[in-house]
Each structure stands twice: as C-alpha cells, then as structure tokens.
Specification:
Largest sheet: 6 strands, mixed
CATH topology: Restriction Endonuclease
CATH architecture: 3-Layer(aba) Sandwich
Distance between the termini: 43 Å
Number of domains: 1
Order of helices and strands: HEHHEHHEEEEEHEHHEE
Radius of gyration: 17 Å
Strand content: 15-25%
Helix content: 25-40%
Length: 199
C-alpha cells in the first residue's frame, strides 16, 4: 500500500488509512503539500494541557494544527458552487474547508459530533467531482484515546457519538467520499506529552 511512502515515525505514531492511492498522488503530484502535512504531523504533540483545558468554539488541538498550516500558506476556503437544471440555477453551497492548498483539502475533526464526518466526506466527494480538489485529508483522534481521557478525568467531554476513528472508517468504506482519494490520520496516545509536570 502507498501508506508505506510515509516516513516510519508517522506510521508509528499515527493510525493511518488511505483510499484510492491518496499517498502516491500527494507525494508525486503535490510534493509541497505532502511535505507540509508530514511537517505538521512530525511537530505535533498531544499535550495534556490542551486536553484538560475547557473547550470553546474550537479546541486548542485543532487550532494548533490549523495555525501551523496557515503559516505554510494553507487557507480556510469556501467554494461558490451552483448546478443548472433546465436553465434554472440552484445554489449548492459547500461548507468551508479548514485548510486548503493547491487542490489538497484538509479537515481537522478532534471533538465534533460525528455527523461532521458526513459533511466532510460529502464535501470531498462534491469538490472532487467538480474538479476543485484532488485529495481529501482528515486528521482525527484514535478511538482508543478515550482511555486516556478517562484517566485524565475528561472522559465525559469525549463521547462515543463524537468524531473519532471508528466513526469515520465505516463512512468512508460505505462510499461517503465517492471517488475522492482520501488519507486519514488518527492521533494516538503515542503522541501524548504531560506538559504540566513540574520539573
């Protein structure tokens, strides 16, 4: 499988899945974006302080990933899409992509309600079919992180009906992304860092 194209340290620390040769397409046709994604994943740590901090509109974890990519000239992007039927134009709005650069769309789903995955995959499918993107990437959390959240006393903040890997995979395998090549990274406990310890 082309996930073997990923550096070993990424495969060791993240749960990785791909569909329709997403890794090969990224590495060969979009090397800058490939390197950006490798860089953000390499530099990411799952800090205890980010987990235990009370959540707002956007988690510190999602913000950290977003800001890293924005510094590399990725951008939040919405598309103005329409369909014409018998001369009548129908608006078909898509939701904003968290991070987009040169036809690569990346979404961060740390702790949203799991229907957000349906939204993301439908967006990937539509934008791929319209020729607006070439690969969709989702960064989410491994389901097994629930055990860590329980230990940290934050288990009730992360329910089974929120965005985690076991909620995503069946949606993709069921065809939710259509023909769009998709690459998924799951944040695992191997990235955990207790940054609250007093040295």
């Amino acid at each position: 499988m082309s996930i073997d194209l990923l550096p070993p340290h990424i495969r060791d620390k993240y749960e990785v899945h791909e569909w329709r040769h997403a890794c090969a397409i990224l590495k060969e046709d979009f090397p800058t974006e490939w390197n950006d994604i490798i860089s953000v994943l390499t530099n990411f740590t799952l800090n205890k302080s980010d987990i235990v901090t009370a959540g707002g509109r956007k988690s510190p974890i999602s913000t950290k990933i977003d800001n890293f990519l924005y510094d590399l000239e990725w951008e939040e992007k919405s598309f103005d899409t329409k369909v014409m039927i018998d001369g009548v134009t129908h608006e078909t709005p898509t939701h904003k992509i968290d991070c987009l650069k040169n036809r690569i769309a990346l979404e961060i789903e740390w702790n949203n309600k799991d229907p957000f995955f349906d939204r993301d995959l439908n967006n990937f499918r539509l934008l791929f079919d319209l020729g607006a993107i070439s690969v969709g990437v989702i960064i989410t959390r491994c389901t097994e992180l629930q055990m860590l959240f329980n230990v940290l006393g934050k288990g009730s903040s992360y329910g089974t009906s929120t965005t985690h890997m076991s909620k995503l995979i069946p949606r993709i395998e069921g065809g939710g992304g259509g023909g769009c090549p998709i690459l998924v990274f799951g944040i695992s406990d191997r990235l955990y860092l207790d940054d609250t310890e007093v040295l």
